[in-house]
Design a protein that fits this description.
This protein is α+β, with helices and mostly antiparallel strands and 799 residues long. It has three domains: 244 residues, Aldehyde Oxidoreductase, domain 4 (2-Layer Sandwich); 151 residues, Aldehyde oxidase/xanthine dehydrogenase, molybdopterin binding domain (Aldehyde Oxidoreductase, domain 4, 2-Layer Sandwich), CATH 3.30.365; 334 residues, Aldehyde Oxidoreductase, domain 4 (2-Layer Sandwich). It has 21 helices and 33 strands. Strands 2, 3, 4, 5, 6, 7 and 11 form a seven-stranded mixed beta sheet that branches. The protein has a seven-stranded mixed beta sheet with strand order 14-15-12-22-19-20-21, sandwiched between helices. Strand 9 and strand 10 form a beta hairpin. The protein is globular, with a radius of gyration of 27 Å. The chain starts with a strand and ends in a 31-residue tail after the last strand. The relative contact order is 0.13.
């Protein structure tokens, strides 16, 4: 049974209690007019009505954390509780908000090129809802496309940090409100009536005096301007919302379920033939020589074979012919960047790089919970494999790919090709998944290199095994935690997170910060900045410190969903469970007492209530509970897990079953949920991710390569391990603006499942996924040739 529940309430604008709970208002070209806020926008010179926002609202520091109860040892706010990564991304986007435009077309539709990447998270739908709300236009009359790379947007075309809806919430609405006002004025002139007697309704301007009306399509040209004009607008109050905050199905749902939706791999460009790459057997290996180039070039359908920086590229009439050619190549390979590395050698480096804990327990005065956790590599492969189309000419290039940082792609490809940035066109396509993977333009850059070498357009596709063995991974890490306590109070909390280096080469979306992200600056590396702007402890645990150390840059890593948070939160919540146990306290009540924020307590209380925390369960079955704050949002998760032998002993060929999470309840507070149905879907996906990285899905490193080479080998949450009971509770609005949501549930779910596992087995888990040390459960695919033979037993494995 999967059930989704939402509670929504309408709030008056002068509801002082709720306004106190909201983040402070932005002060950028905004002012109060009664209880409405006013903003500056533009009507742009264009054939039909085209409008833009000026600077949108800034999401400033959150409201001060609630004071600790007198009996607690309070903790000072951490950096991310004052100013977090989401705030930084929002502020970075503000200066170019006026370059994002909305157009009303003669057919009555509103068109908007969203400068973000749609990779399944539903931002085209939520953006359409913002436009529909302020324009008083039916949702099906809003057309959302993805913008090409636009270097002039600077930091305003990066999709990451759960920031899209937060940073575009006001600019999109301002632009729509400007358009609505312009349409009202044009209608007033046409009808010979006062603007005050007219109303925008369902895509038309209607007179309350005569009943006459004009559609937006009829007014699109009449409302257009010959010069750019600044205008002031007032946005709707939350109490007036008819679209925002209502559950809407995705605008692309029908196309997706009927197979008509176009993803990156579906794009067709004339003469761009299928292309694949023969890759090295170890991570980032190099080509020394190719023995049979001419022989492979003469194979059926093959048009070109060239050496490139990452291997040997093959272009053919079909992908099947490319696969045959890749498998036939005889390449002598040089060493890679992780030659001979294994889980054991990496763990040794991580232990050596750990920063020291500084607060020792004091005999007779304090006690301590002291624990170290290990988190293994995890694959960042998306459902759609890495792919791109490139057509490189002597003095120009055109790229098609799903890109979350298209400006960096455009600038770095131009640099690589030695041509001006203006000569490189980058088209952003919709992608079949990402969760951080498409922050990097690996495939686009590689396709450009191949196209230049061949002098022909190419349609590059990575094989699934390429993605797993040479693609981006979530880095292996350790987390050392010490919490001291005395007389029932936690006095200090220290966490030292040590990680294989995370590649932030995408920077903040353009080439300057992209380059800076690769250069450590003393102890204040780019990674440490991201760590401090994302990690926080939701508890009053006295003197609290959370620090990052990094080692080993030989791996292809990336900001996989939630970056550091799942591992950091999992370690902390396990220690919280242990503190509660040692002090003889209930795990839920212990958390509730120590939480800093009322919003955190509210989501925790809700999952405890709905999930019936503490109910009687058989031996080997247990509940776990956790809370996670991030990007001005809060989530709590309650999980029930079955670790009984009859469950863990289930057998499925070439698979790992293990414990099963049987029930999950999630309560989420994102301030204002633009689309509650979309929010529920995001929470579901995050929960399944959290279950996977806790129990089953990790990469095994051996001899410089990963053993896993396909989804068959990589045990992401399968249907037989998906909880049959899953309930998502969307909390009533606690703000008049949205917080971050895209990554929120992963950390909460991982922590709750880990805590449930510890309670069910009686032992705190310290290695993740928990099955990592068990036999592989599959026969590793060969590394040479890099593309395995196609399986012939698919029907035998159908259930």
């Amino acid at each position: 049974m999967i059930r989704r529940t939402s509670w929504f309430v309408e709030r008056a604008a002068d509801d002082s209690a709720r306004r106190c709970a909201a983040a402070p208002e932005g002060r950028v070209r905004a002012e109060r007019s009664g209880d409405r806020r006013r903003f500056l926008g533009y009507v742009l010179a264009a054939p039909t009505l085209t409008v833009a926002a000026q600077l949108g609202e800034a999401v400033l520091a959150p409201a001060p954390a609630a004071a600790a109860a007198p009996s607690l040892v309070p903790s000072l706010p951490g950096p991310s509780e004052i100013y977090d990564l989401n705030d930084m991304l929002t502020h970075a986007a503000l200066p170019t908000a006026n370059l994002i435009t909305v157009r009303i077309d003669p057919d009555g539709t509103a068109s908007f090129a969203l400068p973000r990447a749609e990779v399944g998270q539903g931002i085209t739908t939520s953006s359409a809802m913002l436009l529909a709300e302020e324009l008083d236009l039916p949702l099906d009359k809003v057309r959302i496309t993805l913008a090409d790379a636009r270097p002039e947007l600077l930091f305003n075309q990066l999709t990451g940090g759960s920031n899209t809806t937060v940073s575009t919430f006001t600019p999109i609405r301002v632009a729509a409100a400007v358009a609505r006002g312009r349409l009202l004025r044009a209608a007033a002139l046409e009808l010979g009536e006062l603007v005050g007697s007219l109303t925008a309704r369902a895509g038309a301007i209607v007179s309350s005096t005569t009943g006459r009306s004009l559609t937006y399509g009829e007014l699109a040209v009449k409302a257009a301007a010959v010069t750019d004009t600044a205008v002031g607008v007032a946005l709707k109050k939350p109490s007036e919302f008819k679209v925002i905050g209502t559950a809407q199905r995705r605008i692309d749902a029908l196309e997706a379920v009927t197979g008509r939706k176009k993803f990156a791999m579906d794009v067709q460009v004339p003469d761009a033939l299928p292309t694949m790459v023969c890759r090295p057997p170890t991570i980032n290996g190099t080509v020394r020589s190719v023995e049979n180039l001419d022989e492979v070039r003469s194979m059926p359908g093959v048009t070109d074979v060239v050496r490139i920086s990452t291997g040997v590229a093959v272009r053919g009439r079909t992908f099947g012919q490319c696969i045959d050619a890749v498998r036939a190549l005889k390449v002598a390979w040089g060493p890679g960047t992780a030659e001979g590395a294994s889980d054991t050698t990496v763990l040794r480096k991580l232990r050596a790089a750990e920063l020291p804990l500084v607060v020792p327990p004091l005999p007779l005065l304090t006690k301590a919970v002291d624990a170290r956790f290990t988190f293994h590599f995890a694959s960042n492969s998306a459902l759609e494999t890495n792919c791109a189309i490139a057509d490189v000419r002597a003095d120009s290039a055109e790229i098609w790919a799903s890109l979350k940082s298209p400006i960096v792609a455009q600038e770095q490809i131009a640099l690589r090709l030695g041509i001006p940035v203006t000569a490189v066109k980058v088209h952003v396509t919709e992608g079949g998944g990402s969760f951080g993977r498409k922050l990097f333009h690996d495939a686009a850059g590689e396709a450009a290199e191949i196209s230049r070498a061949m002098g022909k357009p190419v349609k590059l596709m990575w094989h699934r095994t390429d993605d797993f063995r040479q693609g981006r991974t979530h880095p292996m890490s350790t987390s050392r935690v010490r919490a001291t306590y005395s007389l029932g109070e936690v006095l200090t909390y220290e966490q030292r997170h040590t990680s294989v280096a995370t590649d932030f080469g995408h920077g903040l979306g353009e080439i300057i910060t992209s380059a800076a992200a690769r250069l450590p600056v003393g102890d204040l590396t780019f990674s440490e900045t991201i760590f401090q702007l994302t990690q926080q402890s939701p508890y009053h645990f006295g003197v609290t410190t959370q620090l990052l150390s990094e080692t080993d840059k030989g791996f292809n890593t990336g900001s996989m969903r939630n970056i550091y948070s799942p591992n950091v939160r999992c370690a902390q919540e396990l220690v919280v469970d242990e503190l509660a146990r040692r002090m003889g306290k209930d795990a839920y009540e212990f958390r509730r007492r120590h939480l800093k924020e009322e919003r955190a307590r509210a989501v925790l209380d809700k999952v405890a209530e709905v999930g019936r925390w503490g109910r009687s369960l058989p031996a080997g079955v247990a509940q776990g509970i956790a809370v996670h704050p991030e990007y001005h949002s809060f989530v709590a998760v309650l999980a029930e897990i079955d670790c009984r032998p009859e469950t863990t002993g289930r057998e499925i060929e070439d698979a790992y079953t293990g414990p099963r999470v049987t029930k999950v309840v999630c309560a989420v507070d994102v301030g204002l949920a633009v689309n509650p149905r979309g929010l529920q879907a995001q929470m579901m996906g995050g929960i399944i991710d959290g279950i996977a990285v806790t129990l089953t899905s990790g990469l095994h490193l051996r001899d410089g390569h990963f053993q896993e080479g396909s989804w068959d080998n990589y045990f992401y949450t399968r249907q037989w391990n998906t909880p049959p009971e899953l309930e998502i509770v969307v909390m009533p609005p606690t703000s008049d603006r949205p917080g971050g949501a895209g990554e929120l549930a992963v950390a909460g779910a991982m922590a709750a499942v880990a805590c449930a596992y510890g309670r069910a087995t009686g032992t705190m888990p310290t290695t993740f996924p928990v099955n990592h040390a068990e036999p592989l459960g599959f026969e590793p695919l060969p590394t040479t040739p890099p593309i395995p033979a196609s399986p012939g037993d698919g029907l035998d494995r159908a259930f």
